[in-house]
Amino acid sequence: MGEASFFRDRLLPISTVLLALIALWYAFVVVLNAPFERDTAARAGTTISFMELLPNTMAQERPVLPAPHQVFAELWDTTVNKAITSKRSLVYHAGITLSATLMGFAMGTVLGILLAIAIVHNRAMDRSLMPWVIASQTIPILAIAPMIIVVLNAVGISGLMPKALISTYLSFFPVVVGMVKGLRSPEQIQLDLMHTYHASSSQTFWKLRWPASMPYLFTSLKVAIAISLVGAIVGELPTGAVAGLGARLLAGSYYGQTVQIWAALFMAAAVAALLVIIVGFAHSLVLKRMGARA
Amino acid sequence: MTSMPVSDTVVSAKDLGLTFQTADGPVTALTGVNLTVEKGDFVSFIGPSGCGKTTFLRVIADLEKPTSGTITVNGLSPEDARKRRAYGYVFQAAALYPWRTIEKNIALPLEIMGHSRDEQKARVARTLDLVNLTGFGKKYPWQLSGGMQQRASIARALAFDADLLLMDEPFGALDEIVRDHLNEQLLKLWAATQKTICFVTHSIPEAVYLSTKIVVMSPRPGRVTDIIDSPLPKDRPLGIRETPEFLEIAHRVREGLRAGHSYEEHA
């Protein structure tokens, strides 16, 4: 009973849900794509039986909802069958979005940590900065992203940087909030101890506040990295659809290429999952080195 | 530490008072405390909660500022004494940093005070031995029992060789069997290191067993009601707690506590 089984505890529940979702997906494919088949038949002056219509709904060129196997065929075709340098390779586009994501994530993390340090160490900063940090996130990113792109273009900054800045704008927030909490997490007794040693504030920071904040930092980073990817994709939408997963989504919607949209969507989800897993791995590695219970 | 004034008085409080300003108005934590602690003393502060015993210890440690009267530590203001690392403080909880091993926890004050790595190593080994934790240096705090954790925190307070040890109910959270054992060890440690110890407790047997001087305190307002110089010899086996001398002192402490409590109903 007590013995952990990878199959029973992890694989079985996850694959059950996955199979249910795929079944549901196929059901919707038939329902949503059937009207097009009926219309086509009506225009040709014929009628079409349900059994005739069924395979057609899963093989349309521009379906309302593409079938899972169509999406995965497209994914396979645009990743494995295309050179990475090709403009039609999804790996190429994902790579462009990823570089903006990582740059924005790095800048957002540094900015977030610096702001948190200022807020924790200075009452004036706490009172003046924190409300603005919160206010910054009440502005819808979809509204502000095109403006950031246009303004930065006007001053000669283009390419990776504007997209990375949108990622930064989104990702610094969870880091600030998490780190303010983390840097304040030491108990009074632990701070008193430092006081009895006549420790300087930088010693108190590096030997107490910083290590105490690590669990909070990594929890924030998991949110920040996922949101960075969203920022990079949103940043690619108004750039005129040149390259990147955002551009791929936009181009797909211009030309009604629903299969391409879904493939890009799945790629984005896979990249996000991979990034969160990497941060999670770094998290447990750091905590393990800090002597956490196994 | 050669620059310190040569004197045998470690702590000297004159008419010391501390009033906290709270939302419900001022609260007098300490009033009119007169006390001297001589070098080598083992002084226990005993009294019910709210009597100001911990507050007085925190005033010595410069963790609280008195609002009236004067206090000196090693002939200096508490702040100057703290800046010269005059004392080691043992808190109610071990307060070990969970991300540091036991030896790294003990080395913490040494790192802050800028001791060399070799010096740190030597001192950690010596203090681990003093508290009987040799061999546990590489463990993390969660791998140790509560009593062992508290011993590690005592080692940390001893590591930088301050002459004064301030202990705030260090064994309060431990069960009586462990507590008896640690009391015995603490006496041995006190004899071996010749330190001056100020010890806060609310256990009468603990106070009488350990101390050369017992300060009985009472609450509302926090004040000293009796100071008892113990006639017990320095060498004290656990069995001394059944002797008539021991029981007589314990009786006097109990009387002092009761006197302080007599108008509790009106508070």
TrEMBL record, chain A:
Report the membrane topology from the UniProt record.
Answer: Multi-pass membrane protein
Kindly list the places in or outside the cell where this protein is found, as annotated in its UniProt entry.
Cell membrane
Cite the ABC transmembrane type-1 domain residue spans from the record.
Answer: 94-287
Cite the PROSITE patterns for this sequence: ABC_TM1
On the tree of life, the source organism's domain of life is Bacteria
GO CC field: plasma membrane
Biological-process GO terms, alphabetical = transmembrane transport
Report the transmembrane regions from the record. Answer: 12-32, 96-120, 132-152, 216-241, 261-287
Keyword list, A-Z: Cell membrane, Membrane, Transmembrane, Transmembrane helix, Transport
Pfam families the UniProt entry points to: BPD_transp_1
Which family does the similarity line name?
Belongs to the binding-protein-dependent transport system permease family.
Its name, as the record gives it, is ABC transporter permease subunit
Q: Which organism is it from?
A: Shinella kummerowiae
Its lineage reads: Bacteria, Pseudomonadati, Pseudomonadota, Alphaproteobacteria, Hyphomicrobiales
TrEMBL record, chain B:
Where the record annotates domain ABC transporter, the positions are: 11-240
GO MF annotations in UniProt:
ATP binding; ATP hydrolysis activity
Q: State which residue ranges cross the membrane.
A: none
Concerning Pfam families, the annotation shows: ABC_tran
| CDD domains the UniProt entry points to | ABC_NrtD_SsuB_transporters
- Source domain of life: Bacteria
Query: Which keywords appear in this protein's UniProt record, sorted alphabetically?
Result: ATP-binding, Nucleotide-binding, Transport
From the record, what ranges are coiled-coil?
none
- Family membership, please give it: Belongs to the ABC transporter superfamily.
Q: Which PANTHER family match?
A: ALIPHATIC SULFONATES IMPORT ATP-BINDING PROTEIN SSUB, TAURINE IMPORT ATP-BINDING PROTEIN-RELATED
**Protein name in the entry:** ATP-binding cassette domain-containing protein
Species, as recorded? Shinella kummerowiae
Q: What is the lineage of its organism?
A: Bacteria, Pseudomonadati, Pseudomonadota, Alphaproteobacteria, Hyphomicrobiales
